[in-house]
Amino acid sequence: MTAPKALTIDGLETVYDALASAIDQAGKDKTELFLVKLALLNANALGDAELFQQQLQAALLDL
To answer: Which of 15, 16, 23, 26 sits CB 3.0–4.6 Å from 34 for a disulfide?
Structure first.
């Protein structure tokens, strides 16, 4: 399987801004539900459960 294409710094900034805006739109009471739905949709789009697990572990580092 080919590794997914990485985003540029500009692409990451665009994604960050869109995510921050979507979290604001979801509101404080729905943020957790929104993030779970987003993670599941992205895991499905990624199509690789092992890679998703690796990304989960990476995201947990240095919280």
So the answer is: 26
